[in-house]
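Q: Joint fold for the lines below.
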Amino acid sequence: MWPWGGRTMRTTAYEFAREIKKHLIIYGLFIRFSVMSQMEYRWNFIGNMAMETGYLCAKLSYVVVVYRSNVTINGFTPDAMLFFIGTFVMLTGGYAGLFMINNFRLRTTIRDGNLDLLMTKPVSLQFLVTMRQANLTLLGVDVIAGIIIVVIAWSRLGIAITLWTVGGYIALLMVSLVVSYSLFLLPNLLSFWLLNTSSIANITDSFWDFNSMPMVIYSGWIRLIGVFILPIFVLTNFPTLFVLDKMPTHYLIWAALLPILLLFLVRWVWLRGLRNYNSASS
Amino acid sequence: MSLHNPGWLQKYRRTLEMGLQTALEYRVNFAISLIGAIYPIIIQSFLWTAIYDASSETELYGYTYRQIIVYTFLAGLISRLVHTGFEYDIMDDVKNGKFSNFLVQPIGYFPYRLANFFGQKLPNMILILIILAVILLGLNTVWGISITLGRIVLFLLTLVLALVLNFIIFYAISAIAFWLVEIGFLFEGIRIVIILLSGGIFPLEVFGPRFVQITNLLPFKYTVSYPINVLNGRLSVGDIGTGMITQCVWIVLCMLLAAYLWRVGSRRYVAVGG
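A: Joint structure:
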């Protein structure tokens, strides 16, 4: 039995839904504003595209290595590797386009005491600070390229397109996005306690590249650490393993639990950090 | 401005010292950027180990397993060593009108940037060479890979030429700043493609003979791939000599290109600010 009355629960649920709706509308406005500000500086936009295309070439060089080597690594054929790389490209776009820029700005926002003004807004401060900016160029280039690679690999692998495979893949991509948001936000939250965290963040940001290759290339204990302790391998490996029908049940359970655990952890660290925040202007 | 004037050398010596001070000031940053360079080395080493384990061949793309691991380590470090970064300063100088200072002061912009670049690279180079020595010593102990002193000397010579060549390539590219205002991202895109073409990610042979033929016609492989192959013994003495001459030829050609681009570009320069 719920500890609160039916009416109160209904009111809470209604208020929660209303808050979510409000934040989704605001997020839509943030995205729109980001697009407008990026289109304003045309060469910046083209340069951004050139940069991401360059990085894409570097990622595709791994595809060349895999196909020209033509070996099966622990059950991963070159086509399966291609599928993995496509997923990696897509998720890189998601993370870099939606979260990375906010993580970078978070450090200076806290250090310079700029949270003061944002605190007065009638929306979640964490939402405002960590999701305000989006780089649609990075997102666009990588997501489009990633989808193309995944579609090619999917058809080469001859995997049936069913609600289960496509739905499960998309659901696990969402899990990966939530995990990437939380995992890479955590080191940046140290800015509440430390003056300059750019070094720590640079090291952890480079950690993203551990997703560029399937975890089957690593030894057993590295895989264990990468899935359960420092869950970096969850990001690209889980959606791929699911589609390839190589996903053990305990990984599925972990995929359901991990985003919730990490979101709670981030929220807890955020609130603790906020208590430690000193305004710079007063 | 005369060569006999001691002030000519002194001002660039001072510039070199300034670069050195900057590098020492940001030494932690550089150390951290090295950690960033270690990640791809680890990933690629695991990838190559898995590929060679799964393959029935002992040699792939003309490389044995040991040679490719050595290549992976050296490529990660050398591409970090030749990495420039001054192109962003040039962009800033042109965009914000600071380039005007160099037009009125008795200091050449090219030698200023070159001296500053080498000043900044000096401590980094020493650190990377120490790491390199430790890695080679480790490989010698574990795998018995020995490298003669002659090869080390030749490697260091080609490395200096590689640094100069990469500097001039990026100096030429920096001239784009005269045409386009905000090009930081474009530089990054160009940089990553150049790293790929120089063999800084994978050995060029991995991409097939046609790709190798194309890269043979470009200067980039002489900045990373070539010095590595000098050290790991894949090139004969004759090939090393030819390679060094080619490096010098590319330096001259790229300098001519840079001079042309800067001459044309600087005509478009408009000083901004007071």
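Q: Anything notable?
A: Chain A touches chain B through 36 residues (CB under 8 Å). Chain A has a mean pLDDT of 88.
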